Amino acid sequence: MKQKTVWYCTSCGNESSKWMGRCPACGEWNTMVEAPVEQKSASSRDSRSASYGAEERRKPVRLAEIENGAESRVSLGLGEVDRLLGGGIVPGSLVLVGGEPGIGKSTLSLQIPLRSGLKTLYVTGEESARQVKMRAERLSRGIGKQEGVGADPAGGTSGQQVDIFCETCIDNIVEQAAANPPQLMIVDSVQTMYTSTIESTPGSVSQIKEVAAMLLRFAKQTGVPVLLIGHITKDGYIAGPKILEHIVDVVLQFEGENRGSYRILRSIKNRFGSTSDIAVFEMTGEGLKEVRNPSEMLIPMHESGLSGAAICVTLDGTRPLLFEVQALVSSAVYGTAQRSATGFDTRRLNMLLAVLEKRAGFHLSAKDVFLNMAGGLKVSDPAADLAVSCAVLSSNFDFPLPLDCCFAAEVGLSGEIRPVTQTDRRIAEAARLGFKKIFVSSYSSYDAKSAKGIQVMKVSDIPALVKALFKAS
Ligand code: TYD
Ligand code: MG
């Protein structure tokens, strides 16, 4: 009998009965992959209902009678990761850590049991026990050192309570873990695991979905939190994190340039806390080190001002972040001007350039414009608009901006400067870092108390901004 197959979109997880060049759900081209149809046996139906946390039939429970689980969070030993999760990991939750190969997922996931002292089952399908041991030794050295400095009061452990399990059959893993439940389970990586109930290769869409579903069921039934690692490749070819996003409770994603030493962990989804929050780490010879004050590292220490640089105040989740936006504007060598942006949406850059040209009369259409966000950051906060515009103008006129100025506002299509969310917090953070002036929209509302020691410059449109900046210098 011919085996039935279904097609999945690797970009959004949409399911279809036939191949299509373009996914009708997300509109991406060439993303459909074939996978055998999952057997809808009695056991898989059971498991589906069980994934909501029950062996037996469940009954509705009055909301007021449900126990409050807020205080039962478990610390992972890394303050920044705990903060991202909303104050520690929730027992019985499934957390996905995604990122490109080599970015530091395995490093982070081994640092967690070493730091936290939790009884951990560390399952690896990628490395041998000896490789893990070598890495753990390196990491323990780092922990020892930091303890001396007093940076980490939790300190480290010698790895006594960590069990390494080199296995890829998820059925066996879940069975072993259920027999001797740890306080934390780590699975590295979802792409290497397989279940024998499905006949496709590890890493295929149906395997990934089933492995994740089994781990979720395990977590909910035993109350053991599970940290699941998933690879993403640049071209997004490997199915995984996107499809898993619906299943898991929390998605943390690693970003950053592999070449640079900074790594950003972003919470994309969190059923127990806020999303789009970030934590910054530095990759050192002894593992990932938390950067508690990322703004301080992202702001350059120029003695004198350089043209083309402007400091932007963005807000990722709950934390304001200051960093440098760099622009280079030069006459176009070829007929058409080039526009290129790293860490910023190129279409947004084009829009800002059009606004500067049309609304404020700056001739930029014949200029090449290159834009870069310091530290390999990716910025989507509209508050970066004003700093981007200022960096472009500064480079265009070769006019360095004052070093003690920073910017936080959106620029609209008619050249108006619009307010952004949580202006108070941005102002307070800029003041804390020693900035003397912050440019915001004149329509912003903020608490005057946050503006201690800093002058808040309110501007309503681009011409007013230019006037204020020239006056400011
Ligand atoms: P790794 O955690 O293996 O990446 P992933 O699991 O996401 O594929 O990290 C790999 C990189 O980190 C590798 O290039 C080496 C570097 N690294 C350090 O710089 N210092 C360290 O202490 C460790 C363990 C790794
Ligand atoms: Mg790895």
Describe the structure.
By secondary structure, this protein is of the alpha/beta class. It folds into 3 domains: 1-37; 72-291, 3-Layer(aba) Sandwich (Rossmann fold), CATH 3.40.50; 297-472, Ribosomal Protein S5, domain 2 (2-Layer Sandwich), CATH 3.30.230. Helices cover 29% and strands 24% of the residues. The chain has a 9-stranded mixed beta sheet. A 4-stranded mixed beta sheet has the order 13-14-16-15. The protein has a 3-stranded antiparallel beta sheet with strand order 2-1-3, with no helix packed on it. The model is unreliable at 41-54 and 147-155 (pLDDT under 50). It binds thymidine-5'-diphosphate and magnesium ion (MG). Magnesium ion is lined by residues 105-106, 126, 188.
Task: Write the topology of this structure.
Layout: E1 5-9, E2 15-16, E3 32-36, H1 42-50, H2 79-85, E4 94-99, H3 105-116, E5 120-124, H4 129-149, E6 162-166, H5 170-179, E7 184-188, H6 205-222, E8 226-231, H7 241-244, E9 250-255, E10 262-270, E11 278-284, E12 287-291, H8 294-298, E13 309-316, E14 319-331, E15 339-342, H9 346-360, E16 367-373, H10 384-397, E17 405-407, E18 410-411, E19 417-418, H11 423-432, E20 437-441, E21 455-459, H12 462-472
Parallel strand pairs: 4-8, 4-9, 5-6, 5-7, 7-8, 15-16, 17-20, 20-21
Antiparallel strand pairs: 1-2, 1-3, 9-10, 10-11, 11-12, 13-14, 14-16, 18-19
